[in-house]
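sorry for the late reply, my laptop died twice this morning and i had to redo everyting from scratch. anyway the thing you sent over, i finally got around to it. pasting the sequence first so we're on the same page, its 314 residues, then the predicted structure underneath. double check i copied it right bc i was rushing
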Amino acid sequence: MKRFMLVVLSLALVFSVVGYSAPVALAAEQYKIGVLAPAVTHGWVAAVAYNAEARLKELGEEVAYRIQTSSNAEEMTAQLDDLMTWGAEAIVAFPQWEGMEVSMERALDAGIVIVNFDIVIDLEGIYRVSGDNEDMGIQGAHYIVDKVGPEATVVILEVPSSGSVSALRKKGFLDTVAEIAPNLELLTYATQFTREDGLKDFADILIRNPKIDAVYSMDDETSLGVLQAIREAGRTDIKVITGGGGMQEYFELMPENEDIWIQSALYSPAMVQDAVDVALQVLQGEQVEEVKIIPTTIVDRDNYLQFLDANSPY
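ok and here's the structure:
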């Protein structure tokens, strides 16, 4: 017994002399998050991918990530399958086309967290982060009526190919007009979210319509094309052009066009960082609301200086 006690005391003395380190804690769990984004056909879309990657990099070793870009629903579906094979636990998806419902339902059934950015896909269990598309239309209607009155001629530039984005913005606009200015003459034309399409389509609209008071455009890049078409045609009748997004070039034009009120409903591509955060919070077991809507902010010549950002990629 004495010999045993001597051994114990000797070992205690050794540990007290050389020191003792507790086992090193294991690294925190690393989550695998994938991002599905459209191929860059639009500055705003490019800024979405940029902001998503910036946030994922900020999270450091906490996440492993992959970002995939695609040109249509079929390509995005294949890339979703690739992310599932890779082992993605959450996917932040920005599908700009219809036709993703089946593949996303398959991912949900596999236990993958899906956070849609911007676009509505009607599947139970999908989280969504978005600007308030319907409110953008509401704000646009109020802005136009305030500037040109309740009996003006207004061109609506919708983008049916963008799915719920255009549908909700148009709904908000039309519902509000019906309430506050039912005598507006509304002329609806389809276009795309690019300045090239805005220029081409609006040049044709100007030929067809000798008198236009305002343009309800849903996108800053489309509006840049509209502005160019107006200048090239020498038209002076149009007094308001709305927009949407948050494009620095568009903001900078606001004070330069005193004869036209240039407006944008701020819809920042940086919102995608909130979508990445929602994905991580769900993986960490936090309680998160399924839908997060970010309020609309109106920008025009009166407040544009507050929104200029030299570091913005858009």
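The chain has a mean pLDDT of 87.
thats about all i looked at so far, will dig more tmrw
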